[in-house]
Design brief:
10 helices; 370 residues; Alpha-Beta Plaits; 46% helix; alpha+beta; 3 domains
Length: 370
C-alpha cells in the first residue's frame, strides 16, 4: 500500500469522529437508553402497565442506534490501535496492520450508514414505490438535453439497485434529450432513497450550439411521488374526469399512429393531467394513467396540509417543491453543489454516471444534525 492510499484511509477513518453533533446526539441516546433500562428494572414501573409499555416502545426505538454506536466506538479503538501499529519498524507487522486498517475502514463506513439509517425519522411513504417526473425547465433545447442527462443518471442508479422501471410517458426534445419523462420505479425503499431529489436542478455549461464559448444556465425539474396504496380508496368523482384517447407518437412499434391506444386523463377540479402511451393496450394505458393521477392528487392534498405547518418544517432538508432550486451542476469546473445543505462535490462525472449514493447519504445526515 502506497503512502497516498494510506493517507486516504486515515482521512476516512476520522471522518465521522469530526461530526461532533452526530456523536453528541448518539451519546445522548446511549444515556437515555441506559436510563430507560434502569427504570424498567424498577418494580414500581413494572406494575404501571401504561408507563411500562411506553418505556418498552422507547427502548425498542433506541436499541439499534445505540447498538451500532457501541460497535462503532469499539471499531474506532481498533482503528486507532492499528494506525499506531503502522508506525512500527517491523515491516511484516506494518503490512498486516495496513491490510487490517483497510478492512476496519470499510466496516466503519458500512456501520456509519447503518447508524444514519437507524436515526433518520421514518416517513410513512419510505417503503413505497414512486413515480419519477423529469421535465425540462428554462433554457430551451439545452434544458431538454440536461433533462436527458438526469434521466440517464437516475436510470444507471436504478440498475445498480436492481430496481425495475415502467415508462408511462416520454416527450423527446427537438434537438436531443427530453421535454418530459414520467417513470414508475419499483424496488426496496425507493421513496426513502429518492425523496430529497424533488426540486429544480440547475445546469451551467457551454452548449454545443454556443459558438462563442459562453456558459449558459438552464434547468430541469424533478418530482418524486410515492405511489398511492390503493386507488380504489381515493375518492375521485368520475364526473370530474375528462378522458381522451389519441394515437401514440414517437418510438413505439407498429401500433404508433395506427390505433388510439394513448390515454390522457384530466382531473378538472385540480387541472392535473395524466398521460400514458407506452403500452399497446388502451386499457393498460388507462390503468397506469389513473394510478399516476391518483398519486398526484394525494400528493397535492398533502402539500396543502403541509403548507399550514411550514414553521414546523424549517429543519427539513427541503420542502420537495419542484420550484425550489436545490442543486447546481457546473460542468466547466466538474462541480456539483446542493444548496440546501451547502455541500459541494467535485465528482460531477461520477455522479452523472449514476453514483449518487454519497450525495444521498449526505442529505440523510443533514436531517440528523438539526
Amino acid at each position: 500500500m502506497n503512502s497516498k492510499s494510506l493517507q486516504d484511509l486515515k482521512s476516512l477513518s476520522s471522518k465521522i469522529k469530526n461530526n461532533k453533533e452526530l456523536v453528541n446526539k448518539l451519546d445522548d441516546l446511549r444515556i437515555k437508553y441506559t436510563e430507560i433500562t434502569e427504570k424498567l428494572d424498577d418494580p414500581n414501573v413494572y406494575k404501571d402497565r401504561r408507563l411500562s409499555n411506553k418505556l418498552h416502545k422507547e427502548k425498542a426505538k433506541l436499541e439499534k442506534p445505540v447498538e451500532y454506536f457501541l460497535d462503532y466506538n469499539q471499531l474506532l479503538i481498533q482503528i486507532n490501535e492499528t494506525e499506531n501499529m503502522i508506525q512500527s519498524d517491523d515491516t511484516e507487522l506494518k503490512i498486516i496492520a495496513e491490510d487490517d486498517l483497510k478492512k476496519y475502514v470499510s466496516e466503519k463506513l458500512k456501520l456509519e450508514n447503518q447508524i444514519i439509517n437507524s436515526l433518520v425519522e421514518k416517513d410513512t411513504n419510505d417503503e413505497k414505490d414512486i413515480f419519477l417526473e423529469i421535465r425540462a425547465g428554462t433554457g430551451g433545447d439545452e434544458a431538454a438535453i440536461f433533462a436527458g442527462n438526469l434521466y440517464k443518471m437516475y436510470m444507471k442508479f436504478f440498475e445498480k439497485n436492481k430496481w425495475t422501471t415502467e415508462l408511462l410517458n416520454i416527450n423527446e426534445g427537438d434537438h436531443g434529450g427530453y421535454k418530459e419523462v414520467i417513470l414508475k420505479v419499483l424496488g426496496k425503499n425507493v421513496y426513502a432513497d429518492l425523496k430529497f431529489e424533488s426540486g429544480a436542478h440547475r445546469v451551467q455549461r457551454v452548449p454545443e450550439t454556443e459558438t462563442q464559448g459562453r456558459i449558459h444556465t438552464s434547468a430541469a425539474t424533478v418530482a418524486i411521488l410515492p405511489i398511492a396504496d390503493d386507488i380504489d380508496d381515493i375518492d375521485i368523482n368520475p364526473t370530474d374526469l375528462r378522458i381522451d384517447t389519441y394515437r401514440a407518437s414517437g418510438a413505439g412499434g407498429q401500433h404508433v399512429n395506427k390505433t388510439d391506444s394513448a390515454v390522457r386523463i384530466t382531473h378538472i377540479p385540480t387541472g392535473i393531467v395524466s398521460e400514458c402511451q407506452e403500452d399497446r393496450s388502451q386499457h393498460k394505458n388507462k390503468a397506469k394513467a389513473m394510478s399516476y393521477l391518483s398519486s398526484r392528487i394525494v400528493m397535492l392534498e398533502k402539500e396543502k396540509q403541509k403548507a399550514t405547518t411550514d414553521k414546523e418544517r424549517k429543519n427539513q432538508v427541503g420542502t420537495g417543491d419542484r420550484s425550489e432550486r436545490i442543486r447546481t451542476y457546473n460542468f466547466p469546473q466538474g462541480r456539483l453543489t446542493d444548496h440546501r445543505i451547502n455541500l459541494t462535490m467535485y465528482k460531477l462525472d461520477s455522479i452523472l454516471d449514476g453514483n449518487i449514493e454519497p450525495l444521498l447519504e449526505e442529505l440523510k445526515k443533514s436531517t440528523l444534525n438539526k
